[in-house]
Specification:
5 helices; 174 residues; mainly alpha
C-alpha cells in the first residue's frame, strides 16, 4: 500500500477524517442536546419539524459518518505495515484502537438502529394521527416506550462519540 505512504494522500485522508468527525460529533450533540428538546417543547409543531428534518438529517449523517469511517480505516491500515502489534505495544496504537471501536459502535448504531426505530415511531405516529378518535392508551404507551428507547440510544451514542473523539485527540501524545 505505497499510496498510503504518500504525504499528500495522508493529508487528504486526515482532513477528511478530522473534518467529517467534527461534523459527526457536532451534529449528534446539536441534535440530542438542542434540537430534540426544542422540538419536544414545541409539541405538534416540533414533531412536524422533526418529521421534515429526519430524512435529510439521516442522509447527511450517513454520508458524514461513512466518510469518517472509511478515511479513518485507511489511516489505521497504514500502521499495519509494521505489524499489528502496534495496537497493544504503543499508547497511540491502543488509543486509536479504542477510538476506532467506539466510533464503529456508533456507526453501527446509526446504520442499524436509529433509522429503523425512527421509522417505527413515524409509522405509529401516522396511525395515531389518522385515527378518527383520540389515540388509544396502548398506542400512547408504545409511542412513549419507542421514544424513550431512542433517546437512551442517542445518549449512549453520544458517549461512544465522546470516547472516540477523546481517544483519537490524545493518541498522538501517548
Amino acid at each position: 500500500m505505497t499510496i498510503l505512504s504518500n504525504l499528500y494522500v495522508i493529508l487528504i485522508l486526515r482532513i477528511l477524517h478530522i473534518g467529517s468527525g467534527i461534523v459527526w460529533v457536532g451534529s449528534a450533540t446539536l441534535y440530542l442536546l438542542l434540537i430534540i428538546p426544542a422540538a419536544r417543547s414545541a409539541q405538534s409543531a416540533g414533531q412536524k419539524f422533526l418529521q421534515t428534518l429526519g430524512p435529510k438529517f439521516g442522509a447527511m449523517m450517513g454520508i458524514v459518518t461513512t466518510v469518517t469511517v472509511l478515511s479513518g480505516a485507511l489511516l489505521y491500515v497504514r500502521f499495519f505495515a509494521g505489524g499489528i502489534s502496534f495496537i497493544w505495544t504503543t499508547g497511540a496504537g491502543f488509543a486509536f484502537t479504542v477510538g476506532a471501536v467506539a466510533a464503529l459502535g456508533s456507526y453501527v448504531m446509526g446504520a442499524g438502529f436509529f433509522g429503523k426505530m425512527q421509522a417505527r415511531i413515524e409509522k405509529l405516529g401516522a396511525e395515531m394521527e389518522s385515527a378518527q378518535s383520540a389515540p388509544n392508551p396502548a398506542q400512547v404507551q408504545e409511542m412513549n416506550r419507542l421514544q424513550s428507547s431512542l433517546m437512551k440510544a442517542y445518549q449512549f451514542d453520544l458517549v461512544l462519540l465522546a470516547v472516540a473523539m477523546l481517544a483519537m485527540a490524545v493518541a498522538r501524545y501517548l
